[in-house]
């Protein structure tokens, strides 16, 4: 249960009105307007009641086992070290501060990176509570018992704007549409000058991924190598660098400072 962990909840905001969220009973949270949210096991659950999690328990376990052993190499054509490095950079940029990992899945790459970097607060957001339960297990094992894990949609993150020193979005943006809303959400989470580190697949970079995309019954939303830099710019990022690795686009970017003056 969440009660077992010394979790700092001050970063939480109601996804409906942006109000602060406080514990209203041992198993529930509420904002001052009365929107209530459950604690589902070790996760604060902002998804609609009885929502079907985008990834169920069986798929979460298969994903967790296959990603490092098969998916990265055969589908995306990259080594696990690429993702490990991305998460090391993100955690390093949040050293002493807050790292938001969205979507965090099972925290496969971020748990160890968070410990090595010495971040003050790890916040994992994902639309799958089963994934988050795997993440809790991994984070506790790695030595991050006070991680805050929230079941929520990346399109409406229930977190205070400007609260993250760095955000990492790894292998998840291809599932979220519209992308401009997703990138806007990630930008808002960052303080000005905070960094976004990302990796997600695009079409046209690797045949195995393109074939898999064509045969998917439910299509996802791969990135576009020709437009990602501009999309990040429109979402409020500067100093954007994008590179291609196998089927993936891997990028770093900085949240622009708000414009001052008239
Ligand atoms: C392939 S996993 C990647 C997880 C992790 N970042 C990693 O690198 O191992 C993709 C994750 O995206 C989550 N997801 C899909 N759509 C989402 C959405 N709209 N909001 C939040 N999470 C979402 C899924 O539940 C899944 O855990
Ligand atoms: Zn509310």
Could you outline the blueprint of secondary structure elements for this entry?
Elements: E1 21-25, E2 28-31, E3 36-40, E4 43-45, H1 57-76, H2 80-93, E5 98-101, H3 110-117, E6 121-126, H4 129-142, E7 148-151, E8 164-170, H5 179-189, E9 190-201, H6 207-215, H7 228-234, E10 237-245, E11 248-255
Parallel strand pairs: 4-7, 5-6, 5-8, 6-7, 8-9
Antiparallel strand pairs: 1-2, 2-3, 3-4, 9-11, 10-11
Bound molecules: S-adenosylmethionine and zinc ion.
Please supply descriptive tags for the structure shown above.
262 residues, alpha/beta, Rossmann fold, eleven-stranded mixed sheet, 11 strands, 26% strand, binds S-adenosylmethionine, binds zinc ion
Characterization of this structure:
With 262 residues, this protein is α/β, with parallel strands linked by helices. The protein has one domain (52-255): Rossmann fold, CATH 3.40.50.150. It has helices spanning 57-76, 80-93, 110-117, 129-142, 179-189, 207-215, 228-234, and strands at residues 21-25, 28-31, 36-40, 43-45, 98-101, 121-126, 148-151, 164-170, 190-201, 237-245, 248-255. It has an 11-stranded mixed sheet with strand order 1-2-3-4-7-6-5-8-9-11-10, with helices on both faces. β3 and β4 (43-45) form a beta hairpin. The longest helix has 20 residues, at 57-76. It binds S-adenosylmethionine and zinc ion. S-adenosylmethionine is lined by residues 54-55, 67, 83, 103-105, 108-109, 126-128, 131, 153-155, 170-172, 175-176.
Whole-number mean pLDDT: 92
Which small molecules are bound?
A: S-adenosylmethionine, zinc ion
Query: Which strands sit side by side, in order, in the main sheet?
Result: 1-2-3-4-7-6-5-8-9-11-10
Distance between the termini: 50 Å
Q: What's the structural domain tally?
A: 1
């Amino acid at each position: 249960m969440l009660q077992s962990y010394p979790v700092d909840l001050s970063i939480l905001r109601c996804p409906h009105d942006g109000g602060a969220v406080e514990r209203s009973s041992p198993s529930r949270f509420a904002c001052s307007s009365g929107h209530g949210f459950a604690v589902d096991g070790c996760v604060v659950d902002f998804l609609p009641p009885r929502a079907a999690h985008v990834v169920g328990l069986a798929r979460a376990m298969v994903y967790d086992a296959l990603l490092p052993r098969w998916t990265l190499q055969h589908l995306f054509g990259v080594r696990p070290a690429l993702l490990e490095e991305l998460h090391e950079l993100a955690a390093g940029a949040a050293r002493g501060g807050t790292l938001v990992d969205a979507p965090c899945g099972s925290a496969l790459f971020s748990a160890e990176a968070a410990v090595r970097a010495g971040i003050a607060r790890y916040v994992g957001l994902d639309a799958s509570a089963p994934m988050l339960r795997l993440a809790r297990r991994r984070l506790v094992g790695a030595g991050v018992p006070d991680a805050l894990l929230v079941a929520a949609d990346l399109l409406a993150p229930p977190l205070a704007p400007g609260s993250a020193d760095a955000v990492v979005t790894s292998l998840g943006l291809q599932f979220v549409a519209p992308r401009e809303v997703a990138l806007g959400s990630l930008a808002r989470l960052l303080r000005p000058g905070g960094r976004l580190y990302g990796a997600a697949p695009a079409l046209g970079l690797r045949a195995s991924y393109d074939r898999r995309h064509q045969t998917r019954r439910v299509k996802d939303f791969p990135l576009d190598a020709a437009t990602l830099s501009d999309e990040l710019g429109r979402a409020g990022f500067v100093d954007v660098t994008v590179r291609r690795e196998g089927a993936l686009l891997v990028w770093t970017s900085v949240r622009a400072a708000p414009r001052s003056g008239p």
